[in-house]
Amino acid sequence: MSSPHDVAVLVGSLRKESLNRKVANELIKLAPPSLKLHIVEIGDIPLFNQDWEMQAPQSVVDFKTAIRNAKGILFVTPEYNRSIPGVLKNAIDAASRPYGQSAWPGKPGAIVSASPSPMGGFGATHHLRQVLVSIGINAMAQPEVYIGQADKLFDEHGALNNDRTREFLQKFIDAFAQWIDRHVD
Fold this sequence. Notes:
By secondary structure, the chain is of the alpha/beta class.
């Protein structure tokens, strides 16, 4: 068997007890042997400023390197005001610049959203899809993952306590592995 595909997982919430980080950690556990998922932190990326495009801060250089080295990108995000969190958009922008030197194009990607809301981040997912088109990510269309009422799905230790959700996440991560296989050289 060949080595597993490296997948960068970007969590759109910085909160210590983030529901989306809990979902990301569950997906890391459920990943098939063909994938190696790891969270790439986005909280230390400074607000994008075109002035530093020629000499980016080290945190941006490191982030772009992690994205370039990844074979796939998994976005796990909450919804803030019917869109994606600013910290996630900032990370996307930072790795897409300067013009012509984006780290994103051609990478297979997928989106998962989780929220205490019954709608599970529907608006954020669709806004993020628009952004992914513009940066050249080949986003998987199905299955769509909107985890509603996510605040009721984890125990006090952060472990998923819902078998139906776990089965659904397993189907999703298996489909994502196939998506990556189709799009990686």
